Amino acid sequence: MRVAFIYGENCERFVCNFAFPKYCSTFGACGVSCDFCKNYDYSSSVVFAEKVPNSGDLEEFKIDPFECDVLVVLNVHPDVLLNIFDVEFKALIVPVEDPRWLRPGLRLQVSKLCEEFGIDFAAPKPFCSLKGKGLIKKFSDEFKIGFPEFEVDLDGDAIRKVRVLRSDPCGSSYYVAKMMSGFILKDEQSLYSEVHKHQCSYPCTASMNRDPELGESPFHLAGYLMVYSFAKACGIDSKYFVPQKFWKFLD
Asked: What are the pLDDT digits (tens) for 109-145?
């Protein structure tokens, strides 16, 4: 599958986590001594990646022609987003880490254009809520990125080993997996608190700004999804830890 990235400010971590994970420490990822825990490299699947200049420098900006299966567009000016349909792609993912990245009205415009051109479309808010259908689901499954998923080895009440089966796009799943190894499961609440603590310690890319559609910030939703997914891997149904308004994001 051919993947392309067009991105704006503060989005390098997404591209790095996808294509060059051994360099993630360059972006101050987890703050611990790097042991290169991400044993994958999807760089050969990236056919195009370009950072878009600030809005004041857009007059002369032009995207060179390319073709891909899945195009991921992160934090770009609306004019750039609406003009990408000159490029050949089959699926479009426009993550919303911050409500300012994609306003509802613009999302509707893009959605209608995708429908018109027969393009699969997803605007996950935040990016780690990505599931999707069709080619977007295939993207998530093939590159093991999107809604976080873990496999946990338990020895009695002790967490012996954690494997990341699917990482959130910013890569914090690997940090949580590393920090939760050795944790003693005393009760559900202590597990929730510990996972959430580590999720908060990682430089999550989801915004703390309140989103009117969510009723909370994307950052808070990212935390709920991480706790839910990790607890599930431990055999604990933590659905009721998550506010009911967010149940639609769960499995």
From this structure: 999 999 999 999 999 999 999 988 899 999 999 999 9
> Which of 113, 143, 173 is at the close of a domain?
143
Whole-prediction pTM: 0.93
Q: Mark whether 50 and 139 lie in a shared domain.
A: yes
State whether 99 and 113 are in the same domain. yes
Q: What is the tens place of the pLDDT at every residue in 32-48?
A: 666 777 888 899 999 99
For residue 150, name the pLDDT band (cuts at 50, 70, 90).
very high
Question: In terms of domains, do 93 and 209 share one?
Answer: no
Q: CA dist 1 to 46, 68, 124, 184, 230, Å?
A: 9, 8, 20, 40, 28
Question: CA neighbours within 13 Å on the CB side: how many for 141?
Answer: 7
43 and 119, same domain (yes or no): yes
Q: Is the dihedral of CA 227, 230, 232, 234 positive or negative?
A: negative
Residue span of the structural domain in which 94 resides:
3-143
Residue in the structure block whose two tokens are 């976080």: 148
Q: Look up residue 250 and give its two tokens.
A: 């769960």
- What tokens appear for 67 in the block? 């073709």
DSSP characters over 92-106: EE---SSTTTS-HHH
Number of domains in the chain: 2
Query: How many Å apart are CA 65 and CA 226, to the nearest integer?
Result: 37
Surface-to-core class of residue 5, CB atoms within 10 Å of its CB (0-12 exposed, 13-18 middle, 19+ buried): buried
CA 177/CA 235 separation, integer angstroms: 16
Q: For 159-204, how does the pLDDT look when each residue is reduced to its tens digit (9 = 90+)?
A: 999 999 999 998 899 999 999 999 999 899 999 999 999 998 888 8
Q: Say whether both 139 and 162 belong to one domain.
A: no
